Amino acid sequence: MVDDAPEQNPPGDEPSSDASDKPAKQKKKGNFWKELPVLILVAFGLAIGIQIFLGRVYMIPSESMETTLHGCTDCYGDRVLVDKVTFRFTDPAPGDVIVFRGPPSWQNDFISAEPDNPVSQGLSWLGSLVGLPSANEEDFVKRVIAVGGQTVKCCDEQNRVTVDGKPLDEPYKHFDEGTPAEQESFEELKIPDGMLFVLGDNRNHSCDSRCQGQGGLNGLVPVSDVIGKARVIVLPPSRWGGVSDHDPQTVSMGAPGWQENVPLGLGIVGAWPLLLLGRRVRDRFRR
């Protein structure tokens, strides 16, 4: 027997009206605005974590690293991204451009006074959390010339710095226009273990291991004071590019391959939270 009763659509198959859709859309929009502060806090927390553990942007305030890094008064001082990961696995090597905390014997002539205005102080503090340079940071940027156990001296017959009696190859070396292309000489110095001898690329316009603390052992930088390695010029856009780490000494066997790849691997891992956060924010805006 055939059932002639009219077919009935299941309740779930009935088309929904525009009126029933509006509450759902309003609920989604309301949820987004409730979650937005959380997303901002998460992004802010990630920015702080990245600049503490992975990398940070620093401003170059002086001419001591010309022309590798611009810091002159007549141009826009470079902002460089400093890698904080590499030196967790290996020590600084000759040729590395490093950012480091000034040892007690060092003086920084480019420190500006903290702002008196509470609002400016608060903005400066917030900026420092996300990697913007603070006005009174006693940090320096120089190039590693010699490391612990080596002997450094200047100069040989061709006006070159020598390490362990061998002249250095320094294509980054710079002399200001109108000044003699001759380096200031200094006596032979044996570098203790755990210390670094550093120079500015603008060779006669840099107070570095030759003159800080009146030179000698007082001018050396402890490896423990090194913050990281300058990797990339991020500002201004006209100077985007990598920072040279040419080894001025005889090239020897480098670090094991796994060490060289560690920073890249950690960078990829660290990028995942930012990628997922960006997708979530984009999806919310689309809804």
TrEMBL record:
According to its record, how does it sit in the membrane?
Single-pass type II membrane protein
The reaction(s) this protein catalyses: Cleavage of hydrophobic, N-terminal signal or leader sequences from secreted and periplasmic proteins
Query: Which class of enzymes does this protein belong to?
Result: hydrolase
InterPro entries from the UniProt entry: LexA/Signal_pep-like_sf (IPR036286), Pept_S26A_signal_pept_1 (IPR000223), Pept_S26A_signal_pept_1_CS (IPR019758), Peptidase_S26 (IPR019533)
State a single Pfam family of this protein. Peptidase_S26
This protein's record includes keyword Membrane = yes
Q: Where exactly are the transmembrane stretches of this chain?
A: 36-59
Query: Can you tell which superkingdom this protein's organism belongs to?
Result: Bacteria
* Keywords, ordered alphabetically: Hydrolase, Membrane, Protease, Transmembrane, Transmembrane helix
Q: List, alphabetically, the PROSITE patterns matched.
A: SPASE_I_3 (PS00761)
**Enzyme Commission no:** 3.4.21.89
User: Where does it primarily localize?
Assistant: membrane
For region Disordered, the annotated ranges are 1-26
Q: What is this protein called?
A: Signal peptidase I
What is the species listed in this Swiss-Prot or TrEMBL entry? Lentzea cavernae
Residues covered by the Peptidase S26 domain = 34-234
